[in-house]
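Researcher: Let's do a round of design. I'm pasting the structure tokens now; please hold your answer until I've finished.
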């Protein structure tokens, strides 16, 4: 139990530092802003209580808001993803998955399932984040393009990380 908590804390710190120190400093395009920190929320164990997932999601968003000077934007988007995640997992995972207590990943659920899962929740996250950021529908289609391009790049970076982790997991 303590080892699992320590593993989640180390993963959280690594992902947040990667997002803040590397990903946020790469200028791809005005329409492309990848946010990979949501992989922490996506990869929490299936058996974790929904209230705990939402609480960790809010905390993750709060940390991002603190270092990004975006008051509450990441917290709202991450909290929503944490809330919706439990509904999606209840719908898409089997009873055996819940009994085993797996974490959603490519190695456990397969590539197609994980890509759909990551893309759906990433697009929801980015939609809330970017529309709250502009706080207007005057730039609706421009923001919509930004949501889709940023979601695609975010999921691609997440998939590369998962594939690297998946390959190293297969070797062990």
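Researcher: That's everything. Go ahead.
Model: Designed sequence:
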């Amino acid at each position: 139990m303590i080892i699992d908590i320590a593993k989640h804390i180390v993963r959280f710190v690594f992902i947040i530092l990667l997002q803040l120190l590397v990903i946020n400093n790469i200028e791809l395009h005005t329409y492309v802003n990848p946010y990979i920190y949501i992989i922490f929320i996506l990869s929490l164990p299936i058996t974790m209580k929904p209230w705990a997932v939402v609480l960790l999601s809010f905390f993750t968003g709060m940390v991002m808001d603190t270092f990004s000077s975006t008051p509450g934007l990441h917290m709202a988007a991450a909290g929503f993803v944490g809330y919706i995640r439990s509904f999606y997992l209840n719908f898409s995972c089997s009873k055996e998955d819940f009994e085993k207590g797996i974490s959603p990943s490519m190695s456990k659920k397969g590539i197609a399932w994980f890509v759909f899962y990551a893309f759906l929740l990433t697009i929801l996250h980015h939609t809330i984040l970017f529309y709250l950021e502009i706080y207007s529908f005057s730039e609706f289609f421009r923001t919509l393009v930004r949501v889709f391009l940023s979601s695609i790049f975010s999921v691609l970076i997440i998939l590369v990380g998962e594939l690297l982790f998946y390959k190293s997991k297969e070797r062990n």
